[in-house]
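thread: overnight batch results

M.L. [08:02]
morning all. the overnight job finished for the chain we discussed friday. pasting input first so we're all looking at the same thing
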Amino acid sequence: MTDQTDPVLSIIMPVRNEGGSLSIMLKVLPPLIGTSYEILVVHDDLEDTSVPAAESARADNPKVRVVHNSLGRGVINAVRAGVATARGRYVLIFAADEIGPVFIIRDMLALMEEGCDLVSCTRYAHGGGRLGGSLLGRTLSTTANFLFRRLTRSSLSDLTTGIKMFRCERFNELGLESRPVGWAFAFEIAVKAEAAGWRLGEVPMVSIDRLFGGASSFRPNPWIREYMRWFVWGVRHLRRGDQQPSKVRIPHYRGSGVPASPAAPV
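M.L. [08:03]
and the structure it wrote out:
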C-alpha cells in the first residue's frame, strides 16, 4: 500500500553496460511519463558502465535511484530486486535501449486506472510494428505469438514483449520460475497472468530494436528452450476460448485515445 508521498509509477530498468543508451533515455523519459514516478536503474555488477551514467542522472533528477541486484545475474532477478524496493502503485518494466515505449506510457497508465492488472505493449496488432533487430529474432517472436494465439485464443497479441506494466502488489502472486535467460520471463508473466484471470490490456507500439546501445545479447539456443518452456505451459493451462478479451487503447498521439475493446482478432 502506498502513502501520499509515494509515486504512482515505478519504472524498472534492468541494465548491463548500457551507459551510453541510459544517459540518453534518462533525459528523454521524464517529460513523457505524465504522473509521479521513480526510475530504478538495476544493475548486477558494481563495475557496470551504467552505474556512473545513472549516478550522473540522479544528480539532476533525484527520482532516479540506483539499485544493486544481489539476487543473481539476469534480467528476471533485476526485476525482482527492483520490485522489492519499488514504492509505486504500478510497475513498468522498461529496456534502456528501447525508444518506442516512451510515447505510450500515459496510455498504459490509463488502462491501469481503468482496472487492468497487467498492460502489455503489442508490436503485432492494432497498428503496432517492429523495426530493426535480427531477422531470426523477429521471425521467432512473430511465429511464437501467432501460433500461441491460434492454440490458446489468448487475448494478448504480443506475449513475448518485455515492456509490461502491472500492479506492484500482485507481482508475487505469479511465482515466477524462469531461468535467467534474456527476457523469457516476460512470456511467463503474460501466460501466468492470463491463466490467473487478471484483467489485461494492450497498447500498440512501434518497436525500434537497438536504436542505440551495444550489441544484442540474443543467443538462439538457450532463448528458444526457455521460451518453449512457457509456450508449452501456456498451451496446457489456458483453456481455449475461455479468456476474457483484453482492453485496447490506441496511443493518444495517434488519435483520440479512446479505448477500442474488445481486442480485434489477429
